[in-house]
Amino acid sequence: MLRDVKPHNIMIDHELRKLRLIDWGLAEFYHPGKEYNVRVASRYFKGPELLIDLQDYDYSLDMWSLGCMFAGMIFRKEPFFYGHDNNDQLVKIAKVVGTDELNAYLNKYQLELDPQFNALVGRHSRKPWSKFINADNPHLVSPEAIDFWISCFDMIIRRG
Questions:
Q1: For a tag on the chain, would you pick the N or C end, based on fewer CB atoms within 10 A?
Q2: What are the residue ranges of helices labelled H in 5-85?
Q3: Is the pTM of this model over 0.85?
């Protein structure tokens, strides 16, 4: 797991059409059942696992970060989730994926949000991807791009 996927950690060689991930300082080998530090990744690319202190995360964390980058590119909104702190970051995520999906994820792992977190996050329905399309980005949005984006952000699919 790289655990710090973000635009600054990607190098592209356009001539050779190669992409490389760099800065492996926070990387760890994944071992099922092992608990990992949640103080990794840059805030705007942190998966919900890290924001709710779930230490039993896996490599799908990097897929979330990739989804954040991808959404920023196709919808021309960078960063895609712009939280002012980790708590606000979780609120921004809940406003897009919806609190029902967030709660299903929490229930799957027998986790509970702190009551103050529940009040902070509130209740939100999943935001349709079409709400992110504007005059600047329709040429970047395709059914395949949306399918990929949704699969990166689907918390239940990512964690199997």
A1: C
A2: 48-51, 60-74
A3: yes
